[in-house]
């Protein structure tokens, strides 16, 4: 973090100007700033920002950025702080620009199947508002207290990506503010666009390093009629993973296909005290299906069950009630907190071609055993996204081993045609590994794009890559 000296300080006159722009009640310089010093990333040292400013509208964002740019003060945009890559940690101090108060749902347009929202709307509120209008926002990136702005900035994924894609596939337009204070509009309430460079897609996934997103136009769909869930045990992960291409080739498009192994199932049972059906087997697929009517759901579930049995599935468990279905899904949603409870050194979210998941998991477990570290693996089998957790309580030497192991995991993932992050982003914690996944030419081009948006490098500096 040697560039700290290049940045301006948040002096009293800067605080006074921020208070003039955003209102005194929206500027924190004392207690409470520590709540903005970290996100949900494991083992990242919290950094308390010099000041937290809560913007209430686009004009405020624009004036705050203009001031910060003139004074060379780093700005870290922040949504719900649920990120898993240290993206919202203000590593150079400066200003944390919180979007939590820009949380209005501006429009739900039933005719065009679109919602226009401010960035601080949290997922839970969006779901509720959209469903009240008889519509559906299908993405589910794991944590309902995350904001839509944060989802856009990280291009969040989650369990329903097989059918509905990741956040960028639902973003039709954005309003964003550049560090100069300029407000840019990109995309709109239309579904096709071949009109110049696609800035919507460039800003989506840019982790707050190019601009602050202040408005988002999202695609909605009619709600699915009926749902079902299959929990399918196998004797080994290879058999489970080999079922996946066959399911997709049969033109059955499940909402999501998750994989997990016995180790995480055992941990969930120990932690929650609840028994998971068929827990004695080694590997599992959890498959979510939807269709217009119950008969069609049964037909799809039956077909998927047959394919899994052909690939060596031991049984096909279909929960008999909504409650049993919910329990299984909730068990899956708890994986991250369960892992934390048992002591985890790190988290990786490598993505590989989906047919390679089992080989990848086997190989990285072999490598983990060289380091004497247990490695828990689970993830989104339908889109090749593997979450890996080297387990252990964090002594310094163990943490060092964990970091070395991660580098090797990333190298194996890339050598199998994958990349180092499928959904959590690079942020601060993975930037040292970016060269494993991107060659010099690509990183240089990204740096040139960054400089075009942000010549003074004030927008979330030190995230994704270092500029100097
Ligand atoms: C239990 C748990 C489960 C999770 N499961 C998933 C999952 O399944 N899939 C998945 O993809 N993620 C998952 N996540 C990670 C997390 O929820 C996502 O990264 C989410 O998109 C972050 O949103 P946020 O509002 O909390 O953003 P923050 O953490 O506040 O910020 C994340 C990044 O976005 C930037 N940012 C935030 N708002 C803006 C804005 N308006 N303009 C510009 N930049 C901005 C920040 O600077 C930072 O770089 C999970 C997290 C937890 C804790």
CATH topology of the largest domain: Uridine Diphospho-n-acetylenolpyruvylglucosamine Reductase, domain 3
Helix-residue proportion? 25-40%
CATH class of the largest domain: Alpha Beta
Summarize the biggest pleated sheet.
6 strands, antiparallel
Q: How would you state the average pLDDT, rounded?
A: 95
Which sequence of strands runs across the widest sheet?
10-12-11-14-15-13
Total strand segments: 15
From N to C, what is the helix and strand string? HEEHEEEEHHHEEHEEHEHEHHHEHEEHHH
* SS element count, helices: 15
Radius of gyration: 23 Å
Roughly what fraction of the amino acids lie in strands? 15-25%
Stretches where pLDDT is under 50 for at least 5 consecutive residues are none
Task: Explain how this protein is built.
The protein is 35% helix and 18% strand. It is of the alpha+beta class and 468 residues long. The protein folds into four domains: 2-101, Uridine Diphospho-n-acetylenolpyruvylglucosamine Reductase, domain 2; 105-219, Uridine Diphospho-n-acetylenolpyruvylglucosamine Reductase, domain 3 (2-Layer Sandwich); 226-335, 2-Layer Sandwich (Alpha-Beta Plaits); 343-441, Alpha-Beta Plaits (2-Layer Sandwich), CATH 3.30.70.2740. The strands form three sheets. Strands 10-12-11-14-15-13 form a six-stranded antiparallel sheet. The protein has a five-stranded antiparallel sheet with strand order 5-6-9-7-8. The longest helix is centred in the last third of the chain and has 20 residues, at 396-415. The termini are close together. The chain binds flavin-adenine dinucleotide (FAD). Flavin-adenine dinucleotide binds at residues 39-40, 76-84, 87-88, 99, 119, 141-143, 146-147, 149-151, 153-154, 156-158, 207-208, 212-213, 336, 423-424, 427, 460, 463.
């Amino acid at each position: 973090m040697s560039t700290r000296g290049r940045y301006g300080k948040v002096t009293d006159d800067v605080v006074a100007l921020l208070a003039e722009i955003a209102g005194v009640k929206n500027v924190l310089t004392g207690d409470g700033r520590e709540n903005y010093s970290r996100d949900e990333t494991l083992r990242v040292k919290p950094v308390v920002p010099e000041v937290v400013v809560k913007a209430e509208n686009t004009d405020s964002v624009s004036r705050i950025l203009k001031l910060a740019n003139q004074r060379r003060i780093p700005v870290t945009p922040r949504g719900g702080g649920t990120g898993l890559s240290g993206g919202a940690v203000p590593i150079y101090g400066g200003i944390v620009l919180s979007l939590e108060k820009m949380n209005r749902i501006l429009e739900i347009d039933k005719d065009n199947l679109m919602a226009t929202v401010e960035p601080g709307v949290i997922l839970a509120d969006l779901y509720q508002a959209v469903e009240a209008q008889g519509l559906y926002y299908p993405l589910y990136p794991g944590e309902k207290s995350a904001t839509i702005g944060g989802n856009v900035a990280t291009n969040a994924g989650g369990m329903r990506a097989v059918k509905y894609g990741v956040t960028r596939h639902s973003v039709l337009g954005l309003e964003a503010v550049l560090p100069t204070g300029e407000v840019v509009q990109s995309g709109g309430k239309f579904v096709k666009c071949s009109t110049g460079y696609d800035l919507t897609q460039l800003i989506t996934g840019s982790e707050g390093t190019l601009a602050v997103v202040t408005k988002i136009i999202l695609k909605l769909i009619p709600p699915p009629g009926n749902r079902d869930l299959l929990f399918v045990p196998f004797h080994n992960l290879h058999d489970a993973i080999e079922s996946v291409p066959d399911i997709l080739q049969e033109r059955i498009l499940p909402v999501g296909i998750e994989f997990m192994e016995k180790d995480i199932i055992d941990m969930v049972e120990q932690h929650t005290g609840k028994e998971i059906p068929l827990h004695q087997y080694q590997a599992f697929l959890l498959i979510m299906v939807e269709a217009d009517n119950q008969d069609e759901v049964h037909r799809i579930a039956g077909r998927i069950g047959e394919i899994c049995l052909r690939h060596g599935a031991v049984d096909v468990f279909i929960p008999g009630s909504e409650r049993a279905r919910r329990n299984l899904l909730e068990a899956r949603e708890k994986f991250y907190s369960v892992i934390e409870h048992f002591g985890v050194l790190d988290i990786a979210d490598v993505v590989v071609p989906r047919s390679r998941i089992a080989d990848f998991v086997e190989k990285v477990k072999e490598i983990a055993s060289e380091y004497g570290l247990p490695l828990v693996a689970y993830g989104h089998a339908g889109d090749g996204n593997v979450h890996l957790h080297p387990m252990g309580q964090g002594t310094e030497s163990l943490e060092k081993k964990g970091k070395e192991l991660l580098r090797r995991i990333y190298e194996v993932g890339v050598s199998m045609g994958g990349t180092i992050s499928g959904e959590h982003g690079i942020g601060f914690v993975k930037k040292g590994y970016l060269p494993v996944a991107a060659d010099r030419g690509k990183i240089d081009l990204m740096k040139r794009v960054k400089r075009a948006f942000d010549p003074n490098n004030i927008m979330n500096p030190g995230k994704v890559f270092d500029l100097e």
